[in-house]
Amino acid sequence: MSMLRVKAIAKKEFIQVGRDPFSLLMAFLMPVMLLVIFGYAITLDVNNIRTVVYDQDKSAESRELISRFRDSGYFTIEAYLQDQRDIDRKLDSGEAFAAIWVPNDFSKKLQTRIDSPVQIILDGSDSNTATIAQGYILAITEQFNAKFGGVRVAPRVDARIRVWYNTELRSRNFIVPGLIAVIMSVIVALLTSLTIAREWERGTMEQLISTPVKTRELILGKLIPYFVIGLIDTLVAIGMSVFVFDVALRGSIVLLIALSSVFLFGSLSFGILISIVAKSQVLASQMAMIGTFLPAFLLSGFMFAISNMPKPLQVLTYAIPARYFVSIVKSIFLKGSTLALIGVEALLLVVYAVAVFVVANRKLVKRIM
Amino acid sequence: MNEPPAIAARGLTRTFGKTVALSGLDLGIRRGELYGLVGPDGAGKTTTMRILSGVMLPTSGDALVAAHSVVNEPERVKEKIGYMSQRFGLYEDLTVIENIHFYADLFEVPAKKRPPRIERLLGFSNLTPFKDRLAGNLSGGMKQKLGLACALIHTPEVLLLDEPTNGVDPVSRRDFWKILYDLLREKITIFLSTAYLDEAERCTRIGLIHAGRILLEDQPALLRRSLDMKMLEIRPDNIRRAAQVLEGVEGIAALSVYGDRIHVGLRKPDSFDAVSGALESHGIRIESIREIVPSLEDVFISRVGHE
Q1: Residue span of the structural domain in which A8 resides
Q2: Interchain CB distance below 8 Å, B92 and A15
Q3: Are A71 and A26 in contact (CB under 8 A)?
């Protein structure tokens, strides 16, 4: 292996990336954009549910109940309706997500200690929000019952829940670290998937393989610039997570960067492998999208919990390196995990990276077929 | 001289699926030769070039280039040769000097030897004023000269040039050939392919390739004389009628039309009269008729016609 040749190829790639605005955008702007879009837009938290109230009772008790909804912070009272038919209208038009209907005998029933029904209608077309809203509603009515409800004879289980690792249950806390993993696997694979295909397409490969350069020098030389870019992206993403999105990094940043490097190496090798196999830039970028973006996005557990997936898909996730890396990044960020706790995942990443690198070396042949 | 040949190919055959690009091509190129592989498009020129430079495997057969087998030791071959592919193979988004340094690195040219060598290469290719220009912004002729400079950076023993002057303007072509002659004086073996017959005339030896085989091979002057027929150049008043008439005349081995003239190859010297007689009997006036030295084109057309 000649370091001079590896250096020459790395330098050449650096110059080419630096002179190609598209590559530069992909390398540096896209990760930041993805982080901003996903960091801000994708939030699974439910706040400010638009609510309308149809209060037929208009008693002290009904007002108390409604104010509890309002004060919870989860519900925003948009309007007080005077007509039952307006409930349908508001829900149909989407102006309201929830409607609270207090019947006119609400306070009377409460006072006579009979179960006093209140109807709450939710827009189930967004089932995720509806489910979460349902939980809030139960909690609010429970508190209300404790004050106004009848004396209960039997002792109840008093569950006091404490949430660890993400105390505030902010979805951003688990999305942003996972996003770092997704961005890295996508960007670097997309960037590198073009490098060798481009040489074939432009006719520079024929000239290149007529020199004594060795395939491993070629691959290594091509990996280096993108490794540096990937590492910069990683640092930017970690920085943004901590300082822009306010996600505390509990674990070791050194460990995080070390394992990111391993993952980067694997992703880059995968991109190179695609590039070698595809031989055309269009095909290569499509293969990179399908081969990295979709699995990293959907099957890595970054947003959608793997345990909720159907069994066959769950099995499939084991074959996706992003899965291990997402879990590593989340653990280090949120749990402050040490290497001992994520050793298996880390080892699998190493195995993956080495395996793909070896396959890529085998696949690159210095011959025109 | 029992110096080993620069290139020795034996039975080179290459197929692409059902298409046969080369069928048993033999070559023997001595050191210091400027050999031209001449032939029409699709004859197998590029395939030959690629196999000899070690970037393509032959289906069967082998070739020794600079004493190394292209099948078994392609990487040793690559150290000894300079190859210029038909399509411009350098990086258009790199400058002239960046391309040269890149190839110097790939061939591990020692740092000490570089400055004088690069200066010389830039000098003879007249690229010195353009060394910081992006290769993509060079003219066709300058691109080819840059390609040549990159192929020469490691002072190869054998230079393989695949249609190096294709699409290059006449002035640049002349410059390019001047460089080749300079290189020849330095005892570099040059093996090039071309579709231009005027270029073939400038080679020390040429081989006509057709359908994947060498049909003829010799010095251009000897090849022209090798034609065992007498060539006549006829200028009739009605060229199309004349050509039609002559096709039916006994003893004519070759016939080709060049503008207002017809070249006719006669197998027997005495059929001279038959030609003029046939034309006159059809009422075609002969403005001039004379014997000429056959051109390479005449030679090739008569040979390819036989195949």
Answers
A1: 3-42+171-363
A2: no
A3: no
**Same-domain status, A178 and A314:** yes
Position with higher pLDDT, B303 vs B93 = B93
Which residues make beta-bridge pairs with B136? none
Residues 6+ apart with CB under 8 A from B68: B76, B77, B80
Q: Which among A2, A15, A210 is the nearest to B53, CB-wise?
A: A210
CB contact under 8 A, B89 and A213: no
Same domain, A185 and A63: no
Looking at this predicted complex, what is its ipTM? 0.85
Interface test with A, best of B71, B85, B109 (most A CBs within 10 A): B85
Phi/psi of residue B182, nearest 5 degrees: -60, -40
| Whether B32 and B180 share a structural domain | yes
pTM for the whole structure: 0.81
Determine the distance in angstroms separating the CA of A15 from the nearest CA of chain B, rounded to an integer.
7
Task: Please write the tens of the pLDDT for every residue from A85-134.
Answer: 889 998 888 889 999 999 988 888 888 877 888 899 998 888 878 888 88
Domain enclosing residue B275, as ranges: 227-306
Contact B66, B158 (CB under 8 A): yes
Which residues 330-369 on chain A approach chain B with CB closer than 8 angstroms? 366-368
Alpha-carbon distance B62 to B24, whole Å? 10
Q: Is residue B133 part of a domain?
A: yes
Q: Is residue B1 part of a domain?
A: no
The Cα–Cα gap between A268 and A286 comes to 16
Task: Indicate if A255 and A278 belong to the same structural domain.
Answer: yes
> Residues A3, B109: contact at Cβ < 8 Å?
no
The residue out of B224, B240, B269 marking a domain boundary is B224
Report the C-alpha gap between B55 and A369 in whole angstroms: 9
| Chain A residues close to B107, C-beta within 8 Å | 211-212
Nearest Cα residue in chain A from B97: A12
Residues A99 and A178 in one domain: no
Cβ atoms of residues A274 and A288 within 8 Å? yes
Model confidence pLDDT, tens digit, residues A143-199 = 888 777 655 555 566 666 676 776 666 777 878 888 888 888 888 888 888 888 899
pLDDT digits (tens, 9 = 90+) for B273-298: 778 888 888 888 888 888 888 888 88
Amino acid occupying residue A131: T
Nearest to B55 among A16, A19, A367 (CB): A367
Q: Classify residue A264: in a domain, yes or no.
A: yes
